Amino acid sequence: MRTTDGGSRLSEEPVVAILRKHVWRWVLRPLLGLVLLLGVLIGGMLLYAFESHRFPRPWLGMGPLGFEQTRARQLDPQLRLAYEQELFEELALRRTGSKRFPEGDDLSSFNAALCARDRRWKEMAMEGFELAHIARQAVNTCEGLVFNLKGPMRRLQRLAEGGDVAAMCMMGSIDDPRQDLGPLAQVRREMVERGAALGHPECLWHLSRWTYPGLDGDAQAVAESLSLAARAVEGGAYRAAREPLRHFAKLNLNDQRYDERTYCWSLVYDKGQSVRHEAAETLGYLKRQARSDRDRNREERISRMSEQVMDVHDCVAMGWH
After folding, report:
1. How many CB atoms lie within 10 A of CB 50?
2. pLDDT recorded at residue 197
3. Are 71 and 127 in contact (CB under 8 A)?
4. Which residues on neighbouring strands pair with residue 145, listed in sequence order?
5. What tens digit of pLDDT does each residue of 11-69 get?
6. How many CB atoms lie within 10 A of CB 235?
7. Angstrom distance (rounded) from CA 239 to CA 222
8. Which pLDDT band, with edges at 50, 70 and 90, does 256 fall under?
9. How large a percentage of the chain has pLDDT more than 70?
């Protein structure tokens, strides 16, 4: 009996060992491998999302404490105003070079210009200009990528609700059509309208863009929209001249009466940070159009026009219709 029982136990042990071996080989090991693979995939997705700026990097090279509010309180008001004007100028051109950050003819120099802009914003943030820090939380000009905008927008909202007019306007300066801002979209519109009512050039420009009804829109609505852009230009936001320039350039395709207005607004736009040389391009286009139509009188008028010195007040005096 003992021998039989002992023999049974001995015979059962190899069976159990074999079963364990097969379960490990065919079930547990593949399952563990699958779990590890899923872990690697999820980790890779998170890393990609982080590097793709889906999540704002918390410090952005600002040190372990991030942005220092004490420096913001110590920043000279005049310096802050200068930084504000510079930031808004560069935000509008963040996908290209500018006069401040000129791009070269090759890809390397183009990328260098965009990265120089990001470094400049970091310098401004280090000196206590928080809007530059928020801009770097929203976009990475060096990589040409965009963060999740909800975090930066909420911070701008808090600053705006505290009376920071520049923060109100910056809510209109950062955007990404691929992102749904939800309720923040309405807050953004309200803040920009508040800033425009206070006469801030950046807010006036955004409101001009958002209210423009198109070429076939109501004449009064067109005039009101372009008037907002003109006020923004008068406040130093030359980038806003793009709105009347586009308007009159489209009208000019079929009506040469708008030659002078198109050229005038291109001159104004060129006073900003853009490197496009709109006035030269506009003048060249008008001359080619006149030659193509064999219109000698128009050619002479365009030549005389090119010798004129005009500013935003001259452009506005020409009217909107």
Report:
1. 12
2. 97
3. yes
4. 140
5. 555 766 666 666 666 666 777 777 888 888 877 666 655 544 444 555 555 555 567 78
6. 17
7. 18
8. confident
9. 84
Residue for token pair 């390397």: 108
Amino acid letter, 39: G
Locate tokens 């409101």: which residue?
207
Whether 168 contacts 192, CB under 8 Å: yes
Q: Length of the chain in residues, anyone?
A: 321
3-state secondary structure the chain: CHHHHHHHHHHHHHHHHHHHHHHHHHHHHHHHHHHHHHHHHHHHHHHHHHHCCCCCCCCCCCCCCCCCHHHHHHCCHHHHHHHHHHHHHHHCCCCCCCCCCCCCCCHHHHHHHHHHHHHHHHHHHHCCCHHHHHHHHHEECCCCEECCCHHHHHHHHHHHHCCCHHHHHHCCCCCCCCCCCCCHHHHHHHHHHHHHHCCCHHHHHHHHHHHCCCCCCCHHHHHHHHHHHHHHHHCCCHHHHHHHHHHHHHHHCCCHHHHHHHHHHHHHHCCCCCCCCHHHHHHHHHHHHHHHCCCHHHHHHHHHHCCCCCCHHHHHHCCCC
Q: Which residues pair with residue 139 across a beta bridge?
A: 146
Q: In this predicted structure, what is the pLDDT of residue 46?
A: 61
Query: 175, 171, 118: which is closest to 146 by C-alpha?
Result: 175
Whether pLDDT at 194 is above 70: yes
Q: Which two tokens stand for residue 204?
A: 């006036």
CA distances to 76, 87, 95, 173 from 132, in Å: 15, 7, 16, 12
| Mean pLDDT of the region 122-142 | 92
